Amino acid sequence: MTRLYRLFDIYILLMVTMIVLAMLVPAKGQGYAIASGIADVAIAFLFFLYGARISLKEAKAGLGQGRLQIAVLLSTFVLFPLVGLGLAKGLGGLLPPAIIAGVIYLTVLPSTVQSSIAFTSIARGNVPAALCAASASNIVGVFVSPILAGALIGGDAVDLSFGVFRDICLQLLLPFVVGQCLRPWIARLMSAHKKLLGYADRGSILLIIYVAFSHSVAEGIWSKVDAADLLLLSGVLAVLLAAVLLITAAIGRRVLRLEFEEAVVLQFCGSKKSLASGLPMATVVFAGTDIGVIVLPLMIFHQMQLVVSAFLAQHYARRADDTTPEVSLIDLETPSAKTS
């Protein structure tokens, strides 16, 4: 758990550093063109890694809980957008349109993989089921999230022209499928260089953040977003997270009557949104718009979900200790959770 905190604390600090750097020294002219081109390659590389990392064989181990897996997908791609749309409608003109679009965008993204599994393990949940749910969410999200973003946000924010669909196929879908196809041959190599690939993964996302916020600075968008907007946005995101956590908990235990181990999976996997998938996807879906502001809600929500999930996981773990003291946390941890 401490290692997970340390990893994300450093990562979040680096993300903030990239935003500040973009505000002070934004990429301009030829420099922006070069950085943007490198970022495009980085996006394809990221989705290649996502495809190569997801093991369909391991994910199948959790397919026995069919109702649970469907519930996670419905929470991720139906419940979340509905709650987000309700909040967006209630806000009216209180927040800039780009931020409203960003709130809706984060609701259509897939779940996380590593943190969902890690927190499920800590909470004594069903780890194989969490692996299956998170993996399925990411596979579905590559195809569904851009479509949902276009359908729910609409207007000029989302470009769904043929060129954008081509970019989605070339930068997102094709690398993901290639990674999946090559996994049997490269999985061992990736495992041997896991730390190096992790640095490359996070470094690519940091570059994408810098390019996105450089564009926003060049467009002067930050003159339209003030401290009051950020404070209100944080409150809205807190309400969004709390609502989904409460609803998924109620559905899991009272509607579906799942066992505790499965209900934990629904709550953790169904309430997460992937920063790693959402940032690169946004640069394709929102090409030419205020990307930096649009992804701002996702970056704030990312930190919120980690903090809240950490407290929940520890609470569930203590409760499990009280009811089943003979069960050890170490016994329930998996290599995936320990390295997350």
From TrEMBL:
Q: InterPro entries, alphabetically?
A: Na+/solute_symporter_sf, Put_Na-Bile_cotransptr
Task: Give the transmembrane ranges.
Answer: 7-25, 31-50, 70-88, 94-119, 131-154, 199-218, 230-251, 281-301
Query: GO CC terms for this protein?
Result: plasma membrane
Q: Tell me any Pfam family this protein matches.
A: SBF_like
**What domain of life is recorded for the organism?**
Bacteria
- Keywords tagged on the record: Membrane, Transmembrane, Transmembrane helix
Q: Output the PANTHER family linked to this UniProt entry.
A: SODIUM_BILE ACID COTRANSPORTER 7, SOLUTE CARRIER FAMILY 10 MEMBER 7
Protein name (record): Bile acid:sodium symporter
Species, as recorded: Croceicoccus ponticola
Organism taxonomic ancestry:
Bacteria, Pseudomonadati, Pseudomonadota, Alphaproteobacteria, Sphingomonadales
